[in-house]
Known about the structure:
alpha/beta; 4-stranded parallel sheet; 38% helix; 15 helices
Amino acid sequence: QEMTLLYPYMNGMEPDGINVEKINMVPVKDKRCKVRKYIDLLIGRRHRFVEFAKEYIDINRFDTVVFDSSTVSACLIEKFKMAGMRIITIHHNYEVEYIRADGSILTKYPELFWIKIQEKRAVCLSDLNLTLTNEDANLFRMHYSKEACYETLGVYDYQPRKYNIVQNKQRKHNYLITGGLGSKQNEKSLISWLLKYFPILKKVDPEAVLTLAGREPSTRLVKIAQSVGAEVIASPQEMYPILDKNDFYICTTDCGGGLKLRIMDGLKGGMPVLTHIVSARGYEKMVKEGILGFFIAGPLLRMMNNDDKLSELYLKSPLALEPNILNV
């Protein structure tokens, strides 16, 4: 069977240089100027593929079309559906939630207007909706359609396997946070965590050393991190040496939809992961097997005045005390 992939071309991404067996790689260049892109956004054309894909489908016939997000399905899904093709849409998140938390001031409101329309259309017209988390599927059922077909992908292997927890050598006191430090939702969550939770971590573990590593941290974030004694490594060239030097991984993001990929940094590094419950979406298997633990959410922190009780609850997961490691 033949498979074709339309992909967004950038300099250096020639199809000959992408060695994918049995897949016809078709690069799609974005020839629009910035003004044209903004106008397209205002009228709901939120990607480069619209005209190219319509013409391509007129010439080439396919049985099934897979859209990599409801955004890509915009302005196309009706045409493909009317042509009798089966439609599969991969939803990376509940986009309304994601854009609310991380959208740009210039584009947030037109994006929110269109995504509510286009995401609903993608859910209702797709023969199969693939989500990364159960929460995203539940949000689609609540806001768009209970009758649509959903399957959750999660972050699991195609072939299920058991994740073994084994005892590691005695862990030290090095804690790591990584990710796009310049992202709005990441910065907001991280600053809140540094001011509210890091002092509690220091009470629980007085020898704790915290490192932040990631792209483009703002001056404000760097100053706040330094003021509480954390080290900031801005835009590191290589992440693996940083992972190797740390013992525990923390994901502080407490807003926005979809899957928090940075948790995989901690898992790859063989570290126990402490995270907000929002960031644990899609990692339910890891939570069940004790690889991920939770820290207490902000509202509970504000409600409680007893620091000793907070310290007791803060790292309630056995990961805080047991030197567990994911054996992969």
